[in-house]
Amino acid sequence: MTRFVIDVVLGYWASATRFAPGGALRLDDAYRLAHLALVDPAHPDVIARMPGRTYEMGCRPEAFSLVAPLDAEALEASAALHHLMTDLRNSPLNSKITWDILPKRRSRLHATLCGSRDADAITPAAETACRAIGPIRIAAWGLFCGTINLGRLYLRLYTEERAEGPASMPCNVLSAGRRRRSCSQACSI
Which residues pair with 16 in a beta bridge? Predict the structure, then answer.
């Protein structure tokens, strides 16, 4: 049986939004700049552009990320996902969720393991090191709302546990020789 890395290693709960009962969800500037314009360009809270940031109405110049494509059919067949979707549709959040975007994004369904790398981080040595890791089993368990991109919900991702430890995971390989960042900081979760 595959064992997966635990929450404390990935830092989900340390970087989760703390919601107060009855409190309002306020979209943060990162979400309003990078994502809201893609979901609802006419929304009054869209930040079209910001000095020092490369986004323009949710689009940015080419960036590189390490992603794992997800099998939409397998995900859609999951009983757990059906329960989650039912709970969300029956929740007060239902009217705030852009349900019609799901079919549009189906062919792009992926898990981002390491986001926003500069092209110079993808060296031949880094590619060789990532290939040497081999296939990685990933599990997606439950929703996560972090303190960045507040307004966007993510599935929590867990990589398989390996004897060689988290340093062998791709985001750490791509960070080697640069400012070290833990997997929870380097991955867009």
Answer: 146
Mean pLDDT of 171-189: 40
The token pair at 162 is 């390996």
Whether the pLDDT of residue 51 is over 90: the answer is yes
pTM, 2 dp: 0.68
Q: Residue ranges of the domains in the chain?
A: 7-18+63-70+109-186
Give the bridge partners for 140, in sequence order: 157
Which tokens is 26 given?
Answer: 């306020």
Q: What does the DSSP assignment read for the chain? A: ---B--HHHHTTGGGB--PPTT------HHHHHHTHHHH-TT-TT-----TT---BTTB-S--EEEEEE--HHHHHT-HHHHHHHHHHHTSTTGGGS-TTHHHHHGGG-EEEEEEEE-GGGS-HHHHHHHHHH----EEEEEEE-BSSSTT--EEEEEEBP-TT-GGGSHHHHHHTTSS---HHHHS--
